[in-house]
Design goal:
Layout: H1 6-30, E1 38-45, H2 51-68, E2 73-81, E3 90-95, E4 119-127, E5 131-137, E6 144-148, E7 159-160, E8 171-179, E9 182-187, E10 194-198, E11 201-202, E12 210-211, E13 215-222, E14 226-238
Helix pairs in contact: 1-2
Length: about 240
């Protein structure tokens, strides 16, 4: 290590005194709570400072704090060396800084908004002029059957048409599900002799879904002998809850 450079050390000591003055003035101007101030200072230089200069720097800090921030205390002064420092070869870091940290902005609270009631699909089936059936479908991931069937003791599920609707082939030939804001139809493997068309397009017998329009026709075709055409209409409504 080289011998201390007296001119360099004087420049460092003078610069530190000026920095302490700026710190005290800024702290007083910004209202830093001096009674709670416990100061940590790091003095980094290159080359390193001699023992006498380090002592003078510490005394300068204590003396100026006593005069300008009498309630503050010095907890630690650390001296470090850094060969990569640019000119003028010194750096002073004061913790905490003289400008108090700004509190984090508090996000404005938004007024409570009651969530909108969930949507459900209202499916209406119509055959001729005297037969109308309605079914409400909420959000659910699975398929539900549509058709005319009856099993004694079975709990009703899906969209089951009444037994007197004999113009619809018996069995669960079609299933449907709500997917977002669409209603999908699919063909099951039941009664393979029937062709089921949705808006004139046959439903594929591999169970792949077909999206229904807002209104159209569901047609059951028994080979080439007969067919049944049922009109459908889909409306999207919000559930009405009390309270």
């Amino acid at each position: 290590m080289s011998e201390p450079d007296s001119r360099f050390e004087r420049r460092v000591a003078d610069a530190f005194r000026a920095e302490v003055d700026r710190y005290c003035v800024t702290a007083n101007a910004t209202g830093l709570h001096a009674a709670r101030l416990r100061l940590h200072v790091t003095v980094t230089t290159w080359p390193s400072l001699g023992t006498g200069t380090r002592r003078r720097i510490f005394q300068t800090l204590v003396r100026n704090l006593d005069a300008q921030l009498p309630a503050a205390r010095v907890d630690n002064v650390h001296f470090d060396e850094d060969a990569g420092l640019p000119e003028p070869g010194h750096r002073f870091v004061f913790r905490p800084p003289a400008v108090p940290l700004q509190p984090r902005p508090v996000a404005a609270t938004r007024p409570y908004e009651k969530p909108a009631p969930p949507l459900f699909a209202r499916l209406t089936l119509r055959y001729g002029t005297g037969f109308d059936w309605r079914c409400h479908l909420g959000a659910q991931p699975g398929w539900v059957p549509l058709g005319r069937w009856s099993v004694r003791g079975e709990r009703p599920t899906g969209f089951r048409l009444p037994a007197y609707a004999t113009f619809v082939p018996r069995g669960q030939l079609v299933v449907l599900r709500r997917h977002g804001r669409t209603l999908e139809f699919a063909r099951t493997s039941a009664r393979p002799g029937y062709v089921v068309r949705l808006d004139g397009v046959p439903l594929r017998d591999d169970g792949s879904p077909t999206v229904a329009g807002p209104a159209g026709q569901l047609e059951y075709v028994d080979g080439s002998r007969s067919s049944t055409v049922i009109d459908y209409h889909i409306a999207w409504e919000q559930e009405h809850t009390v309270g």
